[in-house]
Amino acid sequence: MKTMFTTMIAAYICGNIYIFIRAWQTFSGCSLSWKLTISVIYWIAVFSLIISMFFRHVEIPEFLSQGLFTLGSIWLVFTLYMVLALLVMDMARMIVPFLKPLSFYVALGFTCCLLIYGYFNYKYPDINHLDITLEKPIKGSPMKIIAISDVHLGNGTRKPQLKKYVETINAQQPDLIVICGDLIDNSLLPLYQQKMEEELNKLKAPMGIYLVPGNHEYISGIEECERFLKNTPIRLLRDTIVTLPNGLQLIGRDDRANRRRVPIVNLMKKVDPTKPTLLLDHQPYELAKKDSLGIDIQFSGHTHRGQVWPMSLLVDNMYEQSHGYRKWSHSHVYVSSGLSLWGPPFRIGTDSEMTVMTIR
Fold first, then answer.
1. Which of 111, 141, 178, 312 is deepest in the core (most CB within 10 A)?
2. CA distance 5 to 9
């Protein structure tokens, strides 16, 4: 993991050096003072996310914390697409020489248009409906479950966006709401500053609202997350089984970040095999193994399906199931790409989503 992280940081810095050199060449006719001013602003943008992460638990002014995080996260995706666009234009101008003075501007214009599209695509999540018929009985009428993951409340997903999510969820009139990890992003400070519990307290589901931890709850501090959630109707499940009034058994698994979490085999020993089960496990690993244990429904998140292309291609090859629905030999498995996202506010080649499950 450390090697991969170091490689990504190195690639990010090298990409920005490439963009900087090409920009310097394009604006060679400008005054030195103008170029130096733009250079300072450019490199602040490059390192702003790293600065934001370093100070995430420090009470600095909200506008500064928010500004650094937003600028830095946008710059991540800007770097990716600007490098790709410049490489294409640099190859094109070898064939069509008259493109040379325009290549940087064309690459910049294409990248900005793509980011605008990605922003609006992220802002309007899909609502995916899934009907599941189980062999094991549940009491009463069909059950409607809203299943979401990866909301990442904080400097990225702020209170106004949370308000829209809550309204959309409540409009579905669910019997049960389940949140499969990463409700919170990198720190609890923005949640307290914005009083986000006020919106979370508006969630309504007669059978309850349940959350399992994701890796970001551990990044934020799992104990602090537990304290925050006590001011909301959300119940945190950490290797806990809850049997609902209609007989459905919720298996809320702790995240892989806790290396001492209970093995899934041990959790399954505590369930009634005659009643249906719904496993909530943030990271979608060992799906075949869980299927072999007779779990009826599994819901996960974490992958975001890469958020943007071509990261989606990499993520698709990292997991047994990176996104969407699949019926295994026994289990109905859904891996969500996330209601919101981490960092860059863009969805390019992927979609934000919430899942409406109807269980019969």
1. 178
2. 6
